[in-house]
Write a structure and sequence with these properties.
mainly beta; 931 residues; single chain; globular; disordered C terminus; 5% helix; 26-stranded antiparallel β-barrel; 6 helices; six-stranded mixed sheet
């Protein structure tokens, strides 16, 4: 009865929405032409405002033929606006009645003028979405957020964008890996530095871009190497000399503290930002630290809390500028020091046919990380036809860890305990890892349009030097026999180096106005060395000076890759396509320095690529892409170097490992209705692998190896038949007109087939997941609401261990609601209920998280006082499940519990016309020429 009532309400809401739209069937149509040559004006901005209250009731862009249609108009008096950069703005008053609900303006002629984009502004509401060539542009003024909000809060209001608890942003099935500000890189390639530190009230538009490679942007020929990025365009007032940012100091119970510093200065094209963060409440507004969101790994469940308790100290600076000669320069430096305390228990089951393992552990660790990062970009012209782009990057990391583990390792033979190992381990790790990356892109344009030559050279060097002290004390009992004790006391000294250099030469030649040919050559050199020396403690000398030959080794891997390819590229107004093929030759040399053993191999592959894009209209698009690619195994997968610091598994490299080959097919469709604010997108990612990297797992049951008895020996192997498919879709439908309240439906499904070996038996794992979510998002002046519910079903089927087949579920309803009371007082609460079932005793759980605050804004002084509570019911729980072809692991870990905090926030707003405390709720403008 309850489910029936919920469904009935949902259907009624959708029906009322569509019924309301059906009652407003008035239409305005026309065609925009150039007064000079009578040609159609493509992508002109069209808006209709109601004369009675100046509100915008519809907006769109003209099609390739210059036509436009705006539906959903009720009887009344209106004004039509037609705007295009470089043409004189046209306005026309008109009236619709019940007897004449439609109007056709016929040909609307636009005349040349000197009007610039900045001069064309119309006050009022702004259409929420504009579709450009490879860009979805969302107007921030239509997204209402709370005062002192950051960019991440805006992104949570964007249809089709998901923001996980750890800050990871996904949209249209892809993860955002880079955020730019006004087209310039911000703090390197760390999205969190922008989304969690920059103030929302400085944002004019949010652009989601299918970004081409720099080489493709220059040549104009799409090489298929794209990544999805976000670009934040700032408001006009921000660009004209001003400071923005929110700065907060907070202190709470249990000595919890939270300090955030964010100051940005903009002066036309110049940007400077100073960011700092200091807290012990598990907040990290940057990447590269330790800690991070927990949660289900089988389907991307992101509702789990962060593992452990993290103390964070971070400071960063970013500078960017575009100089008068067109030179682009940006640089950033970031320093962070983090410390993580983790206390967890785990239960790991090895699924290996008739012989299985069960490992239970109790772990306590403290891990500290020190990180320095420097990034820079210089893009300049040498002369009118030659330009160069230089991007150096330097990273230095120190890791120090101290881990104490108690464990019980059992071998199960036909449901009977065959052996049991009970032990304790103390592991101390120390390592340093400097890394240098350098990219140079040299570009040449010839006189003939479309003829280009470019050379891209990418070089990287990584050097990791580490050591650990490994002390293990354990007792082994086989088949109920007398326990045998053993002790390990070792120093592991490991040095890993890698060098790679990739040079890619591309020549493009136009064959016609719409068809071009690309010729490309790529040369790759890579070298990896892993040297490990293990020394046993010598009780006579009191030093670690007894070399352990079993665990010591020195291994080198060198690969030379040469690839020669071509592609044809067709670009039309409605569609474009690309098809290409490359021949790739790989020479490998693997050298075991310890044994003076050399192994040479050669591979030849064909790597095809193709893509097709079709524009049904400015708002409706289809994209299909395919590529084939090879992947080289890592040195840890091929080096025969044993590692006994893991008390559960014993990895073994395989020098015979071949490169893998992957076929990838991606399909994506989107549709946005500007007038009604409806949007939808659907997509699929499909991957097929040959010679995929997998493992052959064997339980060590040799009494002659007591130190390894009961461990799972995992050897890297190649397998065929691996396959994965992920489909996803999202529909966004306003319930209240004007996008005041938006209803979103999200659906994701995943299937994967992975192959491993349980001993000599092939173990095929078929994994399924289905996620369904519903969400309400408000864009109201005083009420801020994000409410939803999502659930996921996971199912895993094993060909060898059918009795270990699993099915489990997650359910997570949540609501984040706040209201602005008179006197600038805001009350807020967010509630999340998590229910996890199907995992077994001790790991099935349900808990409720409630966070809340009361704040008061002093408008004149731009100061906000806030009293807040985290985890009001003190129920936060850390539960996680991980799995692979032959293992299932359940974790239970410590999390941050209830605390109270009082904080003060000072908001900078030294910019004319920009209210630093109003979020996106102040005056709104519509830049017609920039739509």
């Amino acid at each position: 009865m309850k489910n029936f009532l919920q469904r009935s309400i949902l259907i009624a809401l959708l029906f009322m929405s569509y019924f309301a739209n059906a009652q407003t069937s008035g239409t305005a149509t026309g065609k925009v032409i150039n007064g000079k040559d009578k040609s159609p004006v493509d992508y002109a901005s069209i808006a209709i405002k109601r004369l009675s209250d100046s509100s915008t009731v519809g907006g769109t862009n003209t099609s390739a033929t210059g036509t436009f249609t705006i539906n959903g108009l009720t009887p009344g008096k209106y004004k039509l606006y037609v705007v295009y950069l470089g043409f004189k703005t046209i306005t026309k008053d008109f009236e619709l009645t019940a007897a004449a609900p439609g109007i056709n303006f016929g040909n609307i002629t636009m005349e040349d003028t000197g009007v610039t984009l900045n001069a064309v502004e119309i006050k009022g509401e702004t259409p929420p979405v504009v579709v450009k060539k490879d860009t979805l542009e969302f107007n921030a003024s239509t997204l209402k957020v709370k005062e002192n909000a950051v960019v991440e809060d805006l992104l949570k209001k964007v249809p089709g964008v998901e923001v996980a608890k750890d800050g990871t942003i996904t949209t249209q099935g892809e993860t955002i890996k880079k955020v730019r500000v006004d087209g310039k890189d911000f703090m390197g390639s760390d999205p969190l530095m922008a989304t969690r530190n920059l103030a929302a009230d400085m944002v004019d538009k949010i652009q989601i871009i299918d970004d081409m490679s720099e080489q493709s942007k220059f040549s104009g020929v799409d090489d298929g190497n794209r990544e999805k990025i976000i670009n934040i365009t700032t408001k006009g007032g921000v660009k004209n000399k001003g400071f923005v940012g929110n700065n907060t100091v907070g202190y709470g119970t249990d000595d919890r503290y939270d300090v955030n510093l964010s100051v940005s200065r903009f002066n036309q094209s110049e940007q400077m930002s100073l960011i700092g963060q200091f807290n012990n409440v598990n907040k990290q507004n940057f990447g590269g630290g330790i800690g991070g969101g927990g949660g289900m790994r089988f389907g991307g469940f992101n509702g789990g809390p962060q593992k452990g308790i993290t103390t964070t100290n971070m400071a960063g600076f970013n500078y960017a500028n575009v100089y008068k000669n067109g030179t682009i320069f940006n640089a950033s430096y970031n320093f962070n020091k983090t410390s993580l305390f983790n206390d967890q228990t785990s239960l790991t089951r090895g699924l290996l046919g008739s012989v299985n393992t069960v490992n239970s552990t109790d772990l306590e660790s403290t891990t500290e990380r020190l990180n320095h990062r420097f990034n820079a970009t210089l893009d300049t012209k040498i002369d009118s036809s030659i330009s160069i782009r230089w991007q150096p990057n330097f990273t230095y990391t120190e890791n120090n860890g101290n881990t104490l583990t108690g464990y019980n390792r059992q071998v199960i033979n036909n449901n009977t305990v065959g052996s049991q190992t009970i032990g304790n381990q103390a592991l101390i790790n120390n390592s340093t890892s400097p890394s240098i990356n350098n990219s140079i892109l040299l570009r040449k344009k010839f006189q003939r349009r479309g003829r280009t030559l470019s050379l891209n050279i990418n070089t990287s060097y990584n050097d990791s030097d580490g050591n650990n002290f490994n002390k293990i004390s354990e007792t082994l009992s086989i088949n109920g026999g007398a326990p045998a004790a053993s002790n390990t006391d070792q120093l592991n000294d490991q040095d890993s180096k890698s060098i790679s250099n990739t040079a890619r030469l591309v020549y493009t030649e136009p064959l016609s106005k719409t068809l071009s040919l690309e010729l490309n050559y790529q040369n790759v050199y890579s070298f990896d060395n892993q040297e490990k020396g293990v020394y046993d403690f010598n009780p006579i000398t009191g030093q670690y000076d007894l070399i352990n030959a079993k665990y010591s080794n020195n291994f080198e891997n060198t690969a030379y890759t040469n690839a020669l390819g071509f592609s044809f590229n067709k670009n039309e107004k409605k569609y474009n396509w690309q098809i290409g093929l490359a021949v790739q030759n790989i020479d490998q040399k693997r050298f075991n320095v310890t044994n003076n053993d050399t192994f040479d191999r050669n591979f030849v592959n064909l790597t095809p690529s193709a893509q097709f894009r079709y524009n049904f209209s400015n708002s409706k698009r289809l994209r299909i892409s395919y590529n084939g690619r090879t992947s080289q195994p890592s040195i840890s997968q091929i080096a025969p170097i044993l590692d006994n610091t893991n008390t559960q598994t014993l990895p073994i490299g395989n020098p015979d490992l071949k490169p893998s080959f992957t076929n990838s097919l991606n399909i994506f469709y989107n549709n946005f209705d500007f007038a009604s604010y409806r949007s939808m997108f659907f997509g699929a990612f499909i991957n097929q692998q040959f010679n995929a990297f997998s493992t052959q797992s064997v339980v060590v049951v040799d009494p002659a190896r007591p130190d390894d008895y009961g461990k799972i020996e995992q050897k890297s192997v190649n397998v065929d038949g691996n396959f994965s498919a992920n489909v996803f879709g999202s529909i966004s439908q306003p319930i209240i007109k004007g996008n005041k309240l938006n209803f979103q439906i999200d659906l994701r499904g995943g299937y994967s087939k992975t192959t491993g070996f349980s001993g000599t038996l092939e173990n095929v794992t078929n994994s399924y997941s289905i996620t369904n979510g519903y969400k309400l998002v408000s864009n109201l002046d005083k009420l801020d609401l994000i409410a939803g519910i999502s659930g996921t079903m996971y199912r895993d089927r094993y060909s060898v261990n059918v009795n270990s087949n699993t099915k489990y579920y997650t359910l997570s309803p949540n609501i984040d609601i706040s209201y602005l009371l008179p006197g600038s007082i805001r009350i807020q609460s967010d509630l999340t209920y998590n229910k996890l079932t199907g995992r077994g005793a001790g790991y099935d759980t349900d808990y409720t998280l409630i966070n809340a605050y009361v704040s008061h804004l002093f408008t004149k002084s731009r100061i906000t006082l806030k009293a807040s509570v985290n985890d009001l019911l003190n129920q936060n729980t850390g539960i996680e499940r991980n799995g692979g072809a032959n293992t299932i692991q359940d974790l239970n870990y410590n999390v941050l519990k209830r605390y109270y905090m009082f904080s003060v926030t000072y908001s900078l707003s030294k910019i004319a016309g920009l209210n630093g405390n109003s979020g996106q709720q102040g005056g709104q403008r519509m830049r017609m020429g920039g739509m």
